[in-house]
Specification:
This protein is an alpha+beta fold. It is built from three helices and three strands, in the order ααββαβ. The protein has a three-stranded mixed beta sheet with strand order 1-3-2, with no helix packed on it.
Amino acid sequence: MLESIFPEKLKIPLIFSALSVETSIENYIGKINSLNPDILVLIDCVDLKSAPGKFKLLTLNQVQDQTFNTHNISLKKLTDFFSMPVFILGIQPEKIDFGENIRTL
Protein backbone atom coordinates (compact mmCIF):
# COMPACT_ATOMS: atom_id res chain seq x y z
CA MET A 1 0.00 0.00 0.00
CA LEU A 2 2.72 2.50 0.91
CA GLU A 3 4.67 1.72 -2.25
CA SER A 4 1.82 3.10 -4.36
CA ILE A 5 1.83 6.37 -2.40
CA PHE A 6 5.55 6.93 -1.99
CA PRO A 7 7.36 4.65 -4.46
CA GLU A 8 10.45 6.86 -4.74
CA LYS A 9 10.85 7.12 -0.96
CA LEU A 10 10.80 3.36 -0.42
CA LYS A 11 13.70 2.70 -2.78
CA ILE A 12 16.17 4.50 -0.51
CA PRO A 13 17.14 3.36 2.99
CA LEU A 14 14.26 4.20 5.29
CA ILE A 15 14.82 6.44 8.28
CA PHE A 16 12.14 6.53 10.90
CA SER A 17 11.39 7.92 14.33
CA ALA A 18 9.17 6.26 16.91
CA LEU A 19 7.33 7.77 19.83
CA SER A 20 5.53 5.80 22.52
CA VAL A 21 2.54 8.01 23.31
CA GLU A 22 0.30 5.36 24.91
CA THR A 23 -3.23 6.78 25.29
CA SER A 24 -2.25 10.47 25.11
CA ILE A 25 -1.24 11.03 21.51
CA GLU A 26 -2.89 14.47 21.57
CA ASN A 27 -0.06 15.61 23.89
CA TYR A 28 2.46 14.84 21.12
CA ILE A 29 0.95 16.77 18.20
CA GLY A 30 3.63 19.47 18.37
CA LYS A 31 6.46 16.95 18.68
CA ILE A 32 5.20 14.90 15.72
CA ASN A 33 4.80 18.02 13.58
CA SER A 34 8.30 19.22 14.54
CA LEU A 35 9.72 15.90 13.32
CA ASN A 36 7.95 16.62 10.00
CA PRO A 37 7.78 13.00 8.76
CA ASP A 38 6.88 12.14 5.18
CA ILE A 39 4.15 9.85 6.50
CA LEU A 40 2.74 9.06 9.94
CA VAL A 41 1.80 5.53 10.96
CA LEU A 42 -0.18 5.25 14.18
CA ILE A 43 -0.08 1.80 15.78
CA ASP A 44 -3.12 0.88 17.83
CA CYS A 45 -5.31 -2.03 18.85
CA VAL A 46 -8.22 -2.37 16.46
CA ASP A 47 -11.05 -4.88 16.43
CA LEU A 48 -10.39 -6.41 13.01
CA LYS A 49 -12.70 -9.35 13.74
CA SER A 50 -9.73 -11.68 13.32
CA ALA A 51 -7.32 -13.77 15.39
CA PRO A 52 -5.27 -12.03 18.11
CA GLY A 53 -2.05 -10.60 16.71
CA LYS A 54 -3.32 -10.17 13.16
CA PHE A 55 -2.63 -6.73 11.78
CA LYS A 56 -3.68 -4.55 8.89
CA LEU A 57 -2.50 -1.20 7.52
CA LEU A 58 -5.58 0.99 7.29
CA THR A 59 -6.34 4.28 5.63
CA LEU A 60 -8.36 6.82 7.59
CA ASN A 61 -11.40 6.03 5.45
CA GLN A 62 -11.32 2.50 6.87
CA VAL A 63 -11.44 3.67 10.51
CA GLN A 64 -14.67 4.45 12.30
CA ASP A 65 -14.77 7.98 13.67
CA GLN A 66 -15.66 7.41 17.28
CA THR A 67 -14.42 8.77 20.59
CA PHE A 68 -15.86 5.99 22.74
CA ASN A 69 -12.49 4.33 23.17
CA THR A 70 -9.32 4.60 25.25
CA HIS A 71 -8.24 7.86 23.60
CA ASN A 72 -9.42 11.35 24.49
CA ILE A 73 -9.94 12.09 20.81
CA SER A 74 -10.68 9.74 17.93
CA LEU A 75 -7.72 8.87 15.74
CA LYS A 76 -9.60 10.08 12.68
CA LYS A 77 -10.24 13.53 14.21
CA LEU A 78 -6.71 13.72 15.57
CA THR A 79 -5.22 13.44 12.11
CA ASP A 80 -6.72 16.83 11.21
CA PHE A 81 -3.73 18.28 13.09
CA PHE A 82 -1.20 16.71 10.70
CA SER A 83 -0.33 17.71 7.14
CA MET A 84 1.35 14.42 6.18
CA PRO A 85 -0.54 11.28 5.09
CA VAL A 86 -1.65 9.28 8.13
CA PHE A 87 -2.19 5.51 8.33
CA ILE A 88 -3.27 3.26 11.17
CA LEU A 89 -1.47 -0.04 11.73
CA GLY A 90 -4.30 -1.87 13.47
CA ILE A 91 -3.44 -4.92 15.56
CA GLN A 92 -6.15 -7.30 16.75
CA PRO A 93 -6.00 -7.60 20.56
CA GLU A 94 -6.80 -10.81 22.39
CA LYS A 95 -9.60 -9.06 24.29
CA ILE A 96 -11.55 -5.92 23.42
CA ASP A 97 -12.87 -5.30 26.93
CA PHE A 98 -12.12 -2.02 28.65
CA GLY A 99 -8.91 -1.94 30.65
CA GLU A 100 -5.20 -1.94 30.03
CA ASN A 101 -4.53 -5.65 29.96
CA ILE A 102 -2.27 -5.70 26.93
CA ARG A 103 0.18 -8.58 27.14
CA THR A 104 3.70 -8.02 25.85
CA LEU A 105 6.10 -10.70 24.68
